[in-house]
Amino acid sequence: MGVFSCQLNLEILLEDKVKIYGVVAEVRDINDNAPYFQEDELEIKMSENAVTGLRFPLPHAWDLDIGKNALQSYRLSSNTHFSLDVQSGADDIKYPELVLECALDREQKAVHHLVLTASYGGDPVHRNGVRIQVMVVDVNDNTPVFAQPEYHVSVPENVAIGTKLLLVSATDPDEGATVEVMYSFLYVDKKAA
């Protein structure tokens, strides 16, 4: 942050000599405030087909201290999918951004738990953090899988029309509307019809 000065301009009146003196009192920051985020928790929804390099702005921390006691850095908890990039605005505020480094897969991990920590200078060093939950939103990226690789059935020649011959089962690891499995035959021999 820029250099800020807090000065009080006072005038003192001495009655016995009827004289006015100008006094400037400088107030120095003693690093008595911890950093804080406006929220304790943040939930981000990110599609599992989001491209690497995607940036998501994160909330910046606030501090009432100034100068060397003001914000020095941000840190993101250790993880395999995200990194942190910090941009400095024209207002001298540091703005953190979450950067996707590795492809997401909701079927492997639906929620990523992270912590963004703000550190401030001075002595003692103050830190505070915000918990971040990245919710991975599903896309229809999986094909249904049958319970067995092949199904075999023997049908007697005199079986009644409408008789159930075989029960097949398939599942889809996706979620939501895309998980409904529909069955159809690709080829039916005319002799069997």
TrEMBL record:
This protein's membrane topology, according to the annotation, is:
Single-pass membrane protein
Q: Which PROSITE patterns match?
A: CADHERIN_1, CADHERIN_2
CC annotations in GO: plasma membrane
The record's subcellular locations are: Membrane
Q: Where is the signal peptide?
A: none
Q: Which GO terms describe its biological process?
A: homophilic cell adhesion via plasma membrane adhesion molecules
One GO molecular function term of this record is:
calcium ion binding
The answer, when asked if Oxidoreductase is one of the entry's keywords, is: no
- Check the record and name the InterPro entries matching this protein: Cadherin-like_dom (IPR002126), Cadherin-like_sf (IPR015919), Cadherin_CS (IPR020894), Protocadherin/Cadherin-CA (IPR050174)
Q: Which controlled-vocabulary keywords does the entry list?
A: Calcium, Glycoprotein, Membrane, Repeat, Transmembrane, Transmembrane helix
Query: SUPFAM superfamilies annotated for this entry?
Result: Cadherin-like
Superkingdom assignment: Eukaryota
- Per UniProt, residues of the Cadherin domain are 38-146, 147-185
Q: What is this protein called?
A: (raccoon dog) hypothetical protein
Q: Which organism is it from?
A: Nyctereutes procyonoides
